[in-house]
């Protein structure tokens, strides 16, 4: 099979907001306790944070991390996690039915994020709480001093305000699993009033209105239309969440799931623009895809977990090679929509549906999905260019006209670097690709990174990395054209300078 594409500097989609390479840490399973934080571990620092984990996060170059939930935030009292640790209450954590010790809370997480080189995206509880708790937490984190909550922060050892910029107004409030689930009207009104109060405390913040939990929700996309009717003027983003699974073991269909994401992004964009038109608003709402990943491998194991234990191993998906391919495709999709998708968080970061795993008191290691995420985050900074693609197509159970060649192109003007991310989505056919880059005179191929494997189900473990990229890709550049063979089901990063 053969595909062709043309790349030119003039075909700009938009400047990429680096926050599309964000991630997520929820107080869930072993994400915090036993993941980020394990006092007594040989790699633990003075605060109990594992330096080996921080190192792996730094290699991913994660610009922003959403915290502290997820479902957990909808019954969370943020005040439980501040002040002297010995005074912090243990609570029944209702979302995941575990005991929350509150040893780590807002201040510690801000410290951890600084060490990891990330900003914090903070989610507030709009399940069991509301406007008052919302205005208090932002006074605690963002107000300089001289008031009850800001002085309490100073007393807790944090003289300077944290200046947290990005705030999520609740989490998945349409979901029946959510403590304090709301109708679109109830959520829209509450979020708009909570957001208004938060902005009065700190006008510099950015706010995310909660969108549907996924495209299968019966209220999607009416939820978006009704909630935005209330929140549009006060927020900057609407959230999207989507998880994928290969439950029928149909790998070709699974790897094509980027098509569903395309549909989702375009629907939410249309609804947001419809509300913009209705309101005669000058503002264009952006999208925050603040939860996305593959999630299904651990579903059965999670049913066996004893309730009311501390940090049990929940949602510990063990990712294989085909999962890594879909993750690559998801990142490509975000880049293709860089004009509207300004933030995105791989859910999650450590141990819980995560690229990074830890053994208790043992090693930290990289899952298969670590690699496409790292490649996109490290090399995908700059302007997203629209590639003109002519690719053969195939059909799967759920999708028609799936292009073999799934690709996004990033031009980094400052570094004078061009990066082509490409996936051959077909699991049986190789693909020969010809890329016209004649507008990039004097550029040469710097490297061609490839993630490929004979076995779509191959996994990494703590002791053996079976799925790992190599730098021996076959791309050659001659007379303004790149020629490359993309073997069946493979991920590629071709870097030119
Ligand atoms: O990331 C795991 C869970 O998925 C989150 O807590 C929730 O928001 C979503 O349903």
Automatic annotation (TrEMBL):
Top-level division of the source organism's lineage: Bacteria
UniProt entry keywords in alphabetical sequence: Carbohydrate metabolism, Glycosidase, Hydrolase
Record GO biological process: L-arabinose metabolic process; polysaccharide catabolic process
Pathways involved: Glycan metabolism
GO terms, molecular function: alpha-L-arabinofuranosidase activity
EC identifiers of the protein: 3.2.1.55
Subunit: Homohexamer; trimer of dimers.
Protein name from the UniProt record: non-reducing end alpha-L-arabinofuranosidase
Species assigned in the record: Paenalkalicoccus suaedae
